[in-house]
Amino acid sequence: VSGHLDSWDLGTGALDDACGVAVSMQVPYLLKQLKIRPKRTVRVIAWMNEENGSVGGRTYAKEEDAAKQFAAIESDLGATHPIGFQFAGKIEALPFFAPLTRILSEQGARLSQRQDEVGQDISFLTDKGVPSFAPMFDTRTYFNYHHTAADTFDKITPKELAEVGSVMAVLAYGLANLEQPLPR
After folding, report:
1. Which of 38, 124, 140, 184 could lock onto 129 through a cystine, CB 3.0 to 4.6 A?
2. Taking the complete model, does pTM exceed 0.85, yes or no?
3. Is 15 within 8 Å of 141 (Cβ atoms)?
4. Residues contacting residue 1 through CB under 8 Å, at least 6 positions apart
5. Can you list the alpha helix ranges (DSSP code H) found in the chain?
6. Residue-wise over 46-83: b if at least 16 C-beta within 10 A, else e?
7. In tens digits, what is the pLDDT along the chain, a chain of 184 residues?
8. Domains along the chain with CATH numbers
9. Is the dihedral of CA 63, 30, 87, 52 positive or negative?
10. 106 is annotated as an active-site residue
11. 98-105 vs 158-176: helix axis angle to the nearest 10?
């Protein structure tokens, strides 16, 4: 689970992308609070240099461990109520998500779109065949603040931030507990 640390120099980067880092950190916190332990490791990554060359994502994808990466999730569009997930990977993987889709749809966040790429930082993993995911949001207001001096903490709604973290935790836990690797 991941987001990026750096921001555009005009604002504080609250929406782009402190929210992504915060909800990623919420995932293992929630799993620990619920006293549930996934079969696979859930790793939090705070990428660096997304705004200016994606060196963090590019370097990580070169590491040996990247070949063992089971899946990747990146949140990088603020944090309003999650309405779904984007998925980048093989069509053959979609049936694996039926149980997760049922659970997430109760929160209004079903696995709803397949795309070629779902996140800048994880795109380098996606290119290596790693199944990748990103939460989808209502972004009607996000681009009013994106890369501007108005990208500040007061634009974050704590309830919606918590919703995103919860939905990402369900997805991460579900992926970490799949019986077999997803098709690559």
Report:
1. 184
2. yes
3. no
4. 23, 24, 27, 42, 43, 44, 45, 73, 74, 75, 168, 172
5. 19-33, 55-62, 98-105, 123-126, 142-145, 158-176
6. bbbbbbeebebbeebbeeeeeeebbbbbbbbbbbbbbb
7. 999 998 877 888 999 999 999 999 999 999 999 999 999 999 999 999 988 899 999 999 987 777 789 999 999 999 898 988 899 999 998 888 888 888 888 877 876 788 999 999 999 999 999 999 999 988 888 989 989 999 999 999 999 999 999 999 999 999 999 988 898 8
8. 2-176 (3.40.630.10)
9. negative
10. no
11. 160
CA distances in angstroms from 74 to 10, 27, 60, listed in the order given: 23, 12, 14
Exposed, middle or buried: residue 180 (CB in 10 Å: 0-12, 13-18, 19+)? exposed
> Rounded to an integer, what is the distance from CA 172 to the centroid of its chain?
9
SS3 4: strand
Distances (CA, A) of 174 to 32, 81, 136, 167: 15, 20, 18, 11
Instruction: Give the C-alpha separation, 17 to 145, whole Å.
Output: 12
Q: How many CB atoms within 10 Å of residue 32?
A: 10
Q: What are 74's two structure tokens? A: 């990146």
Q: Six-digit token pair at 67?
A: 């070949």
